[in-house]
Amino acid sequence: MPKRDEIEGIIERVTQVIIFELKLEDVTVETFNPDMDLIDELGIDSMDLATVALVLQDEYKIVIDEDDYPKLKTIRLIAEYVEEKMAARS
What we know:
The protein contains three helices and no strands. It is mainly alpha-helical and about 90 residues long.
């Protein structure tokens, strides 16, 4: 699978996880901007991010270090982080 398709797939899945886990209404995968600042624009807090990180860790079989949480400000950044972690374990 080409890298661009892979990252787009991860972006879609991260978006689905965020919408489901944070019970966001009035938002769909198609309308969610992957470059939106999750903290400043969406108002998620560290507990929300920890919840999302746990789901992604289980699903992608990776470890998301709590020290890295401040880097994960957008869905695109989270997807790129997940992709790097997946590549590192290969």
